[in-house]
Design brief:
The chain has 178 residues and is an alpha+beta fold. The protein is built from 5 helices and 3 strands, in the order ααααββαβ. The chain has a 3-stranded mixed β-sheet with strand order 1-2-3, covered by helices on one side. β1 and β2 form a beta hairpin. The C terminus is likely disordered.
Length: 178
């Protein structure tokens, strides 16, 4: 291949002077600027607004991720999947958060208090199994199993004084809401 002349066709300018080659384009732009003198600043302003809009969305999403925020629909999905497992009577204290690029869920399920520990564990494992298959990006599910109270006993009675009460609502404080 050495020594052979390059026989590929070359692109050559039709005009002799490179300035003349862009002359037609320049005339059109200057004519447009004469007709619409505010076009340049308006287009610049529109581009700035678009950039600011994208920046706002990206910042909100990034700050949400830094604070482990997830969409409320995701919490509802975890709860619905757990309630769909046979043996689960209730789901409470559902928390879902981002840990790196994966989701982690923690919550409590209520099962029949007459179940054996082994049976309750099986129910919890079935909940975990379904969640891992049905909730995208879910990596970990921490599930606490509570017995129901149909026998009249409250399994958490000894620890109730550790639970923080909910803040009173405006109507509970005697204030009217508008």
């Amino acid at each position: 291949m050495r020594g052979r002349a390059d026989r590929r066709p070359t692109l050559e300018s039709v005009a002799d002077d490179p300035a003349e080659a862009n002359e037609g384009e320049g005339k059109g732009c200057s004519r447009f600027r004469q007709l619409f003198p505010a076009a340049d600043p308006l287009v610049g302003l529109l581009i700035t607004v678009a950039i600011l809009f994208v920046l706002r969305q990206a910042t909100a999403q990034m700050l949400g991720r830094l604070m482990d925020a997830v969409e409320p629909e995701l919490v509802d999905e975890v709860e619905a999947v757990a309630l769909g497992v046979a043996g689960v009577q209730d789901v409470s204290k559902v928390r879902v958060r981002w840990v790196g690029h994966a989701l982690e869920a923690s919550f409590a399920i209520t099962v029949d208090c007459d179940m054996t520990v082994t049976a309750g564990h099986r129910v919890a494992e079935e909940v975990r199994h379904r969640l891992l298959h049905e909730v995208a990006k879910l990596d970990t599910a921490v599930i606490h199993v509570n017995p129901c109270g149909h026998d009249g006993a409250d399994p958490h009675a000894e620890l109730l004084h550790h639970d923080t009460p909910a803040a009173p609502t405006a109507s509970a404080r005697g204030h009217a809401t508008s």
